Amino acid sequence: MADFDVAVIGSGPGGQKAAIAAAKLEKRVVIVERRNMMGGVCINTGTIPSKTLREAVLYLTGLNQREMYGQSYRVKDDITVGDLGIRTQHVIGREIDVIRSQLARNHVAVVPGTARFVDPHTLDVIDESNRDVKITADKIIIATGTRPARPASVEFDEETIIDSDGILNLQAVPDSLVVVGAGVIGIEYASMFAALGTKVTVVERRERMLDFCDLEIVEALKYHLRDLAVTFRFGETVAAVERHARGALALLESGKKIPAETVMYSAGRQGMTDGLGLELAGLSADDRGRIPVDEHYRTTVPHIYAVGDVIGFPSLAATSMEQGRIAAHHACAEPLHGIHHLQPIGIYTIPEISFIGRTEDELTASQVPFEVGISRYRELARGQIIGDTYGMLKLLVSPEDRSLLGVHVFGTGATELLHIGQAVMGCGGTIDYLVDAVFNYPTLAESYKVAALDAMNKLRRVARFEL
Ligand SMILES: Cc1cc2nc3c(=O)[nH]c(=O)nc-3n(C[C@H](O)[C@H](O)[C@H](O)COP(=O)(O)OP(=O)(O)OC[C@H]3O[C@@H](n4cnc5c(N)ncnc54)[C@H](O)[C@@H]3O)c2cc1C
Questions:
Q1: Does the predicted TM-score (pTM) go above 0.85?
Q2: Pocket test for ligand 1, best of 37, 42, 191, 316 (most atoms within 8 A of CB)
Q3: Cis amide prior to 302 (ω within 30 degrees)
Q4: At 381, is the secondary structure helix, strand, or coil?
Q5: What whole-number distance in Å separates Cα of residue 109 and Cα of residue 31?
Q6: Taking the alpha carbons of 37, 41, 46, 47 in that order, is the dihedral positive or negative?
Q7: Which letter, b or e, does each residue of 80-94 get, where b requires 16 or more Cβ atoms within 10 Å of its Cβ?
Q8: CA-wise closest residue to 103 among 13, 20, 194, 182
């Protein structure tokens, strides 16, 4: 008999939820995690530190209050990394405690160390003192996540030339920052540092950024970031970064030279599979370290599953959790429904963006007709009260049955507000519900009613012509 029914490698959102789900199904479960990484990238270096940092930046800079109290309003004049770090460390500590307690309550064994396969049912776990322990399990769930990808040509020094993990260890808030790569992580950090007063330059190889989002909203974000003195260099590639005594010089292929105190590479992520001994389990990963899986998150070896960032897109904490739960249930012969086709996207830039469903560009490309209903925060009493004059909510509505095809939100609370639209879409609702519903007043949620009425009025206008 194996030592455990289920062994989980990695304690990020995917591994955690897989372990807890299997334990709830009364299985004997073990989770393996490197010391100091309980909670995964999510808690230690990714989602939670970056979102807490953002909260600290918004609070200390007073950025969101300047509409009311003037452009010079600040809670603190000289914001230090210490001020920012206090909040981050506090939240990380609490979150780790919550996870440890959940695992203990559910009798999940925790083995500290790095796991690698010895054979398809056996893991060898080595701790930092080089002691090792062997674990056997009937089912194994790989949730090892990713690390920042580092171009071989760049000499990272953890001080001046860093990746997104390094940003959390900066000794001072830089005066100037070059962000290489305008993906979600790059733009989120670009907006936080711009809010702190750092002069930020974003260099992106492609002509556009966040091209999976609504174009109008990305334009609004770019406008805001430019207003915070962010410079965008689209269609440009960093050829080399020179390190100097007082910072670095980013040399672009076009010949431009950008001096900066810090250069942060945000050049995608690499699956954490290279040390896993996958070949000894009969598995392999692609060149970005990702493991292929089927709809149940089963690898090509049927008793081994993989979930979370290590399987690739969409690489979000929320999806990783759900994948973990689904995989554990399948492994324990109590399968659940597959993952819902509607997945929300939240981007914590300043201001934030969130959407679900399809974009205008996608609908147009697939020749699906739609009407747009818009609500602007400045026309809502709550928008005025909080001083958010730029936020907007946009509904994409089918003229055929008035169902929601997409919901796009920009501004304060976008990532929370989005879930009202998600619930309506997920339950197959139409804008009729939003038009009829009474919302608390004054709220941002009211924007759904305003946008639904806008769409309804536009649809009515078209219908009059067709009479
Ligand atoms: C800067 C940043 C910001 C982000 N912001 C958001 C956000 O706002 N919203 C969102 O939804 N997502 C966000 N993400 C993505 C999110 O963090 C990931 O999707 C999520 O953490 C993936 O979870 P996971 O379960 O795959 O494992 P991870 O969180 O990646 O953790 C994997 C764990 O496995 C462990 N491990 C690896 N190999 C071994 C081994 N051999 N033995 C033992 N343990 C091992 C690692 O130590 C690690 O702790 C962000 C990511 C980053 C980097």
A1: yes
A2: 42
A3: no
A4: helix
A5: 6
A6: negative
A7: ebebbbebbeebbee
A8: 20
pLDDT digits (tens, 9 = 90+) for 80-138: 999 999 999 999 999 999 999 999 999 999 999 999 999 999 999 999 899 999 999 99
Amino acid at 223: Y
| Cis, bond preceding 442 (omega within 30 deg of 0) | yes
Which structure tokens are listed for 84? 């920012």
Residue 235 structure tokens: 């269609």
Q: Where are the alpha helices (DSSP H) in 62-183?
A: 66-69, 81-105
Atom of ligand 1 minimally distant from the CA of 164 = 1
Q: What is the pLDDT of residues 122-147, one digit of tens each?
A: 999 999 899 999 999 999 999 999 99
User: By the 8 A CB rule, do 3 and 30 touch?
Assistant: yes
Distance CA 467, CA 459 (A): 13
Atom of ligand 1 at shortest range from CA of 310: 26
Q: pLDDT tens for residues 386-404?
A: 999 999 999 999 999 999 9
306: tokens are 């993989």
